[in-house]
């Protein structure tokens, strides 16, 4: 069989995943090339990814903490946030989707926006 990663023939030990066989050294995250700790990987379009790069590909990393969003999510300013990480850029108070002002691609509460830009 040929390796799903490098396309070279497999002569001995291999990993079988995603409908292919892989050299152990080739079965790594497609983006960061790191091996999968604990054996868990994420399938995106038939290729293996670590959790972070899987969510990066899908656009589901929080713009505030850069960690995967698996539960509730706020979409604002064409980005996604954990609700607790959608905060005013000045006072860091948590914001709600409909109650913020935007300046220079950053969210502000109304009070800080008026103070800074009013």
TrEMBL record:
A Pfam family hit: LIM
Molecular function GO terms recorded: metal ion binding
Gene3D superfamilies xref list: Cysteine Rich Protein (2.10.110.10)
PANTHER family for the chain: PAXILLIN, ISOFORM F, PAXILLIN-RELATED
Superkingdom of origin organism: Eukaryota
PROSITE patterns for the chain: LIM_DOMAIN_1 (PS00478), LIM_DOMAIN_2 (PS50023)
Domain LIM zinc-binding: 1-60, 61-118
SUPFAM superfamilies: Glucocorticoid receptor-like (DNA-binding domain)
Keywords: LIM domain, Metal-binding, Zinc
Cellular component, GO, one term: anchoring junction
Subcellular location(s) per record: Cytoplasm, Myofibril, Sarcomere, M line
Protein name: LIM zinc-binding domain-containing protein
UniProt source species: Cuerna arida
InterPro entries assigned to the protein according to its UniProt record, in alphabetical order: Znf_LIM
UniProt-listed CDD domains: LIM3_Paxillin_like
Chief location bin: cytoplasm
